């Protein structure tokens, strides 16, 4: 375990809960309940727990894909101030996504017909980098991911699941965000590519990037994580909504 006594967390999750409401059925579906964790620069915190414990929901809440049902998400800015992501306006969230918070999901989302090297370069261009150097950096990380060069100039829409995930990872890692969220990044990868990704993640840790990750394989958690937070499924899977007058 890495000593965190001389560091401040970049992220503090306090009593985060998320419930999904099914109005037509009059039910509430709990997903994440009373989650507490901290994430530190240069370290990886792993989220573990069985299916249904809300691991992906926590990541999506931090990225503000979802608004929380309750709780707080405190993020430390470049100016060393804490802001509550649950209360930040959309403009601020978009700014943080562009410059500070990255998210590698389980699925690649790209514009139709956008070629692979442009997909990977896009985060750098959004940060203000010129296209040519951004594409050159994108090519470097695609090469590091072992993606064949003849695929760089075509759309990833027809790629295999493992190839798409390599593009997805390259796009998420290329901009070196201050906080990186990883949702099962190695789930579709072969052992050799998984090893490449692990080395790249280790490099990011050495550069001071903070990471919160879900891994498919327990052995990867044991190898990569500086701390582990285990989530439990909500005790009640379905709760009836109170009838309104």
Protein architecture, described:
By secondary structure, the chain is α/β, with parallel strands linked by helices. It has one domain (11-240): P-loop containing nucleotide triphosphate hydrolases (Rossmann fold), CATH 3.40.50. It contains seven helices and ten strands. It has helices at 55-62, 90-99, 116-126, 131-144, 161-174, 191-206, 218-224, and strands at residues 11-22, 27-39, 44-48, 70-76, 82-84, 101-104, 179-183, 210-214, 227-230, 239-240. The chain has a five-stranded antiparallel sheet. Strands 6-7-8-3-9 form a five-stranded parallel sheet, with helices on both faces. α3 packs across α4, α3 packs parallel to α5 and α4 (131-144) packs across α5 (161-174). The longest helix has 16 residues, at 191-206. It is globular. The model is unreliable at 1-6 and 237-245 (pLDDT under 50).
């Amino acid at each position: 375990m890495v000593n965190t006594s001389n560091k401040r967390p970049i992220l503090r999750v306090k009593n985060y809960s998320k419930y999904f409401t099914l109005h037509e059925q009059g039910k509430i579906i709990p997903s994440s309940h009373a989650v507490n964790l901290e994430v530190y620069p240069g370290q990886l915190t792993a989220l573990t727990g069985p299916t249904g414990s809300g691991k992906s929901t926590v990541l999506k809440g931090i990225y503000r894909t979802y608004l929380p049902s309750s709780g707080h998400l405190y993020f430390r800015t470049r100016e060393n101030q804490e802001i509550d992501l649950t209360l930040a306006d959309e403009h601020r969230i978009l700014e943080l996504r562009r410059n500070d918070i990255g998210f590698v999901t389980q699925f690649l989302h790209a514009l139709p017909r956008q070629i692979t090297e442009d997909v990977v370069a896009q985060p750098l261009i959004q940060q203000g980098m010129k296209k040519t150097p951004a594409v050159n950096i994108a090519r470097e990380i695609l090469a590091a991911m072992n993606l064949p060069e003849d695929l760089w100039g075509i759309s990833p829409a027809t790629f295999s699941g493992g190839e798409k995930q390599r593009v997805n990872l390259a796009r998420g890692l290329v901009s070196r965000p201050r906080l990186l969220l990883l949702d099962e990044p190695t789930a579709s990868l072969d052992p050799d590519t998984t090893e490449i990704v692990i080395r790249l993640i280790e490099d990011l840790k050495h550069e001071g990037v903070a990471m919160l990750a879900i891994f498919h394989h327990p052995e990867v958690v044991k190898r990569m994580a500086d701390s582990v937070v285990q989530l439990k499924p909500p005790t009640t899977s379905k709760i009836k909504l109170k009838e309104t007058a």
